[in-house]
UniProtKB/TrEMBL annotation:
The lineage of its organism: Bacteria, Pseudomonadati, Pseudomonadota, Gammaproteobacteria, Alteromonadales. It holds the Pfam family Peptidase_M48. This is M48 family metallopeptidase. Binds 1 zinc ion per subunit. Residues 60-246 form the Peptidase M48 domain. Its cofactor is Zn(2+). GO terms for molecular function: metal ion binding; metalloendopeptidase activity. It comes from the Bacteria. CDD domains: M48C_Oma1_like. The keyword Metal-binding applies. Keywords: Hydrolase, Metal-binding, Metalloprotease, Protease, Zinc. It comes from Pseudidiomarina terrestris.
Length: 265
């Protein structure tokens, strides 16, 4: 029991010293340094560039770079002044990503689904939002904390129960941590990035109403979805309704912004 008490005390103290706030004011746990996370992002990006086919289409590359530059220009100074690298991957995957360290990747499959520059800006802005809110750090920290908690719980269970009962209890604890802790944080991350990304696109002069339109297109492309409480993403309808509400508030920002020149090839 002494081991468990000391372990829980250490976990609690770690949480206190590593608690920060996201750009929306939400408390978050960050146990790793920004440099460590940026190095991991750069490693992942370089690996992807080795594994995936990179598009050499000058029109597509110019289009994606144009939108990315517009969004980067309106980011908070720390991020706007950072050097960002943008790569277009030739793939049917309807996907894009941004990684710590200033790395952006966009797949040609997404460019086809996004009907205009504003819809593509919604996705790139969303992905940049993950980086600025340091969701990678928070996700890794949450998983580390959850794993430590399960290990400490295993010590207690092993002391109090026979091996068969302990195995069942630990299995249930693992499911509980996944559904009650890690997955909800993933959905929070997605919703937070939607909010941040929509703000960036509006400030860059892209119609924020197009974000909801994009996700309607995405929902039509997707197959059957798991229940929302078992998913790392909000359900498409939940997401669309939230984006529509956010767009109403962002319209004044959009109307005051200069109109972008990026056009889909």
């Amino acid at each position: 029991m002494r081991t468990l008490k000391y372990g829980l005390l250490a976990l609690g103290l770690t949480g206190l010293v590593a608690c920060t706030q996201s750009p929306t004011g939400r408390s978050q746990l960050q146990l790793f340094s920004s440099d460590e996370i940026a190095q991991l992002g750069a490693q992942s990006y370089n690996a992807l560039k080795q594994e995936e086919k990179i598009s050499r289409d000058p029109a597509l590359n110019s289009y994606v770079q144009c939108i990315s530059d517009d969004l980067i220009a309106v980011l908070p100074d720390q991020w706007a002044q950072q050097q960002w690298e943008v790569t277009v991957f030739e793939s049917e995957a309807v996907n894009a990503f941004a990684l710590p360290g200033g790395k952006i990747g966009v797949y040609t499959g997404l460019i086809e689904v996004a009907e205009n520059a504003a819809q593509l800006a919604a996705v790139i802005g969303h992905e940049i939002g993950h980086v600025i809110a340091q969701h990678s750090n928070e996700r890794m920290s949450n998983q580390f904390a959850a794993g430590l908690g399960l290990q400490l719980g295993g010590i207690l269970v092993g002391q109090e129960m026979d091996s068969d009962t302990a195995a069942l209890v630990m299995g249930a604890l693992g499911v509980g941590v996944q559904l009650g802790y890690i997955l909800p944080y993933s959905r929070i991350h997605e919703s937070e990035s939607d909010e941040l990304g929509l703000g960036y696109m509006a400030a860059a002069g892209y119609d924020p109403r197009e974000a909801a339109e994009l996700w309607r297109n995405m929902a039509q492309q997707a197959g059957p979805n798991p229940p929302e409480f078992l998913s790392t993403h909000p359900s498409p309808q939940t997401r669309i309704e939230k984006l529509e509400a956010l767009a109403v508030d962002a319209m004044s920002t959009y109307r005051q912004a200069p109109q972008p020149s990026c056009r889909k090839p």
